[in-house]
Amino acid sequence: MNHHVFTCLRLLSVFSVAIFFALPSYAADKEANKTATDEKKQIEPAVSQAALAAELALRGEKRQSPILLLAAAELLGGVKESPRDASEVVIQQDESSAAEEDATKLEVRALVQSALEYAKGDEELLSFLKGRIEQLSSRGLVVSQGKDLPSVVIKGTTFKVLLKGKLLPGKFIELGNVIFEGKKPAIVLVAGDGDGDLDTWVYDANTGGEIGKDTDNTSTCLIQWVTRFEGPFKIRVRNVGQQWENYVVLANW
């Protein structure tokens, strides 16, 4: 086994252990403090996770280590972004207090890009990183379901082509067992050729409940939601116009 790949696997194992022990566990408190304790349990693990990610990112940038940067990106992938407006933050410092260099960006996309830059020239390491990044960037279809489907990148988001073809007036198509990851944003995008009118519905395949729909008078449909679980969904597209439509059904990945 290539030395770099062996080193990668060993480091990732170490990071997994470090991450496990970095997230604190809490004992039950008295009933009077139960609410505050529950809130603390929800907040502190994320703080620890973010702190560890920041440390790995800084070390990775300093050492130009693709593995450390990727580990930081994987940690940040599980930390929710703050809803606060970053423009509220005002920074003041002595002009001589900092060297003039770009600060490490604690964003998944930036860390991944840096990791790939530092890995240039090592094809085995690049291949390993890209495999991990594919799983990290997955936000819609589960990795196994989308990996062999054609890809389309729209404004930085990767979509997979679930189906494409021609739909006659009054006819419909259904896609079942479309499995999205749990607790992550899901997007279904249906695009026609613009000559008619396509309507789209998304259902929970287990219960039959409607997740969302787009039934305007255009041939472009967009349905977005955050999944509560990893499970199968059903997509139904109907041509309610008077002309046949070329169409494509996309799902984010």
Description:
- By secondary structure, the protein is of the alpha+beta class.
- It folds into two domains: 3-81 and 105-137, no CATH class; 143-252, Sandwich (Jelly Rolls).
- The chain contains six helices and nine strands, in the order H-H-H-H-H-H-E-E-E-E-E-E-E-E-E.
- A five-stranded antiparallel beta sheet has the order 1-2-9-4-7, with no helix packed on it. Strands 3-8-5-6 form a four-stranded antiparallel beta sheet, with no helix packed on it.
- A hairpin with a 5-residue loop joins strand 5 and strand 6 (210-214).
- Helix 1 (3-22) runs parallel beside helix 3.
> Low-confidence stretches at least 5 residues in length (pLDDT < 50)?
17-26, 82-94, 96-101
Distance between the termini: 31 Å
Shape: elongated
**Chain-averaged pLDDT:** 77
Count of helix runs: 6
Work out the helicity level: 25-40%
Q: Could you give the order of strands across the largest sheet?
A: 1-2-9-4-7
The description of the largest β-sheet is:
5 strands, antiparallel
The share of residues in extended strands comes to 25-35%
What is the string of helix and strand elements?
HHHHHHEEEEEEEEE
Q: How many individual domains?
A: 2
Number of strands: 9
